[in-house]
Specification:
This protein is mainly alpha-helical. The chain contains 7 helices and 4 strands; from the N terminus they run E-E-H-H-E-E-H-H-H-H-H.
Length: 214
């Protein structure tokens, strides 16, 4: 049965199954070129898929040998990032400066109370200079909290010392990670400036959503 050539559209009688070209040299060349390009794209696609699989397997292997301490240190910068995104557009809590790289600084230092290391009420935007080179800048940090949020909120943060100790396992942290990453994406998409009341409320809501502090 005659059919039309895919390339020149002339009618021809195929001599083998699924023949797409009429057999003329120009059409045959186009067919060969097209076939080679498809094969190349498939190889590239398969290679990318294999690379993704290998990266995923390496990540799984790496995660499987992580200690609890390493998992905690993996989670911390993500929680700090949430705090910085809540405080998007705000200056350093301790210095009032907008200058320089910003961290998520702890009001109550992790060394003083490791239970509060992931509590968003205890983490606010702070310049790297104030956070790292001024040893946390504790006095000015607390003065900044009181100035921005009020004395009651500062007293509330200081009362968090009374929270029961959290004993997170590796499984607990693994369960929390996708929630944390989803929150980061949502906050990045909004890129919204919140007033002090909204920031306090958002910290409370997200603490509850993350689920570390029941």
């Amino acid at each position: 049965m005659a059919q039309r050539c895919k390339y020149c559209h002339s009618k021809f009688i195929p001599v083998f199954f699924n023949q797409k070209d009429c057999g003329k040299e120009i059409c045959r060349d186009k067919f060969v070129k097209e076939t080679l390009e498809k094969a190349k794209k498939k190889r590239e696609k398969d290679a990318k898929k294999e690379q993704l699989t290998q990266r995923k397997n390496r990540k799984i292997e790496k995660d499987n040998i992580k200690t609890l301490g390493q998992w905690k240190n993996t989670l911390q910068p993500l929680i700090n990032q949430i705090a910085r995104l809540i405080d998007y557009g705000q200056p350093c809590i301790a210095t009032g400066s907008y200058v320089g790289k910003m961290n998520g600084g702890h009001c109550i230092a992790v060394g003083a109370n490791s239970t509060l290391r992931y509590n968003l009420h205890n983490i606010h935007i702070q310049s790297e200079h104030s956070n790292s080179y001024k040893g946390g800048d504790s006095i000015r940090y607390k003065q900044g909290i009181e100035k921005v949020y009020g004395k009651d909120y500062l007293e509330f943060i200081e009362s968090l010392h009374a929270l029961p100790e959290i004993n997170l396992s590796i499984i607990n942290i693994q369960q929390v990670m996708p929630i944390v990453r989803t929150i980061i994406k949502e906050l990045k998409d909004r890129e919204q400036i919140y007033n002090p009341e909204e920031r306090m409320e958002l910290r409370e809501q997200l603490n509850e959503r993350i689920g570390i502090y029941k």
